[in-house]
């Protein structure tokens, strides 16, 4: 009886073997295959324990044997035995009744099955081959017959491998059932020997009473404890998987598993992969023996097709006899291969009519498919990847999220903590913008009287003057969400993206109303359309601008959305953007005044550790920093704190602040730059020339310091404090120009030759003179005309004749300044020498040195200057009692920046 079950083991092992074979041949899905194989091979032995003598729980051996695979019987029942073993349900030929959907196989088909199981992936161990004979009597599921027929007709394919597995599964299941029936019969017909019983002498020699005892045992007792546990009845088919059949009742699972392994099985059955051999092996084993029928060159491989019948007779056990299996070898070039083959055939004396045919085939279909569709698949893959790159997959960073606005959202609770008190200076701008705050906070106050609140405001001004800060403060004060986006973030290379981002931004704003939208650097998209057309226009930018115009028009008056925009170039913005109903308010935020700077200094001085008198300090620093924007001031204060920290100072002092300002304006001190004595003397006399001009010209700005320590790009500098002048007279301009030329004229007066050091001075003088002639109406010949300079220098805004007059006038003004300066310096040649020698000695001289050497300046100084730097000023690093100090930067002779806004 147990032998039938063992036959099912045989089938199970076919599957397991096949699966294992597949797992060996494929590196791709070993886990799936191993798992599946395990389901077949580890569960089946447990089932066999059910038909053994029931193991007693105390009987360790019996228990062990239940977990081990059974020793297979090699006994094949003879016809007489078969008769003896025949049960009542068997027909005359000993065949069992067929379940529905089952069929008996013909002898020829059984032979085919035997052939299949002799070699190849379904090969069975020799001792299990006898199990197949029982298939004659049990029949097989029809599905297996179909597969066998396909095998007969040569139409066996990938899907059929799955059918083989399913068929085997069903067969194993059925065999288990038959076995169970036989077990019942056996228990009723003892002591007659069952053909299924093991042929071991041990079982044959069992005493009759022992057998009878067994017979008398109740049926239930014959079941293993495990079978009992699972509630198996002896008349119901035992579960060959111990109740764990992974395929039972799971046809879809069967199909899935079968399909998954089918491909791998197919490749091993069909021998698609073949095996690589060397040329020598080919020659020795096949070529010399005349077994090669044909060779097919596929790329750099040659597939050897053997005469299968001849090969089988010579090498019966080789895989080469399997249909579809082919050996192959690699070649470097087709020519070399053909030559080698020809030589080999010549050596063998094969006549030309019998030569091995060589054909050429394209690479495998898979390769062709890969080549054909690979790039497309790769591209699609990349697109999908790019689309998921953004946070949350497909976010605004993803490629398909490019139409989403990139506006950052700040809310009252999160980032926007800025209040109007944090924005120093710009009182008028704050006043203007506060109206928006009241509108957002108490809209009814305005609506009650039928007033329409302005839709938006443009904050225009130089960089770093606090436009963004003011917008944030507006949001902070009104406690509404704040969406901040830069104009450049709307611009993409794809046409239409900008417009859709604008749509998205405004849609988000509407959802979050009341709120503030701030578009920084709006000139990136809001540039005048007529300007753009000069250079061919930019459709994308215009489409974006149009969308902004449309969206701002689309607000209804009750929608509490305020749009603020920041720009440094209000002059180039499109007029449609600036008209009432869109950006109604134009708020100019200029560089802060003296008072504004002082306020800003106070805001930032509060945040650092200093023992200085904040009122005095902020005033002095504000005087030292004309033209500084809020951002520059914030940077200076921070720089001072860094300098103090570098020197391990306990607090930040005035000295640190002045060093910081000098560094910001003049650049880093270049200690490594050592001038030779002649150069140093030239620099000293050059700077002394500037200093003397500043001291003796009435309208010159007050002199603060002269230095010949290289700093930034310059070799020396004279520092003046121009103050916040908003208007300049012609006299002031002439004095300033003359003072600027003082360096060169001093060189002329004291040396045989002049140097290149005055180049920057000439540039400034020329620019000033040109402005005087072309824009400030300070030339009688040109008259009160204004010629706007064309930034692109494409065409001059005046005629050729006017151009010549302008050139003549500019030259005349510079020459006047030159003469004025030369007259003074010739007169003060001795004083220049005194200052220059002092400079060579001390490298830096300050205002008090000048007073000591030249006497008091013959003209009164400005009030603010006197307050912080005059006689009554507190001791400061710029007084002579202090060690020489690289002091604050110049605003004129220093090559660094000229902070006068009109220059
Ligand atoms: N009035 C001010 N009060 C206090 N801090 C200021 C003021 N103006 C500027 N700042 C400082 O300068 C920094 C830069 O200012 P902000 O970004 O507002 O300048 P902006 O005018 O928008 O510049 P840009 O035109 O380059 O965008 C601010 O973060 C702040 O620290």
From TrEMBL:
UniProt superkingdom: Eukaryota
Its required cofactor(s), as named, are: Zn(2+)
Q: Which GO terms describe its biological process?
A: mitochondrial protein processing; protein catabolic process
Give the record's keywords alphabetically. ATP-binding, Hydrolase, Membrane, Metal-binding, Metalloprotease, Mitochondrion, Nucleotide-binding, Protease, Transmembrane, Transmembrane helix, Zinc
Query: Could you tell me what reaction this enzyme catalyses?
Result: ATP + H2O = ADP + phosphate + H(+)
- Report domain AAA+ ATPase positions: 453-593
Q: Low complexity composition bias: which ranges? A: 22-39, 187-200
Coiled-coil residue spans: none
The yes or no answer to whether the keyword tRNA-binding is present is no
Picking any one GO molecular function of the record gives: ATP-dependent peptidase activity
Q: Where is the composition biased (Basic and acidic residues)?
A: 49-67, 202-219, 865-874
Which parts of this chain are annotated as the region Disordered?
Answer: 17-99, 179-247, 865-903
Q: Which terms in the GO cellular component ontology are assigned? A: m-AAA complex
Q: Keyword check for Nucleotide-binding, yes or no.
A: yes
Q: How does it sit in the membrane?
A: Multi-pass membrane protein
Recorded family membership: In the C-terminal section; belongs to the peptidase M41 family. In the N-terminal section; belongs to the AAA ATPase family.
Protein name stated in the entry: AAA+ ATPase domain-containing protein
Protein species of origin: Xylaria hypoxylon
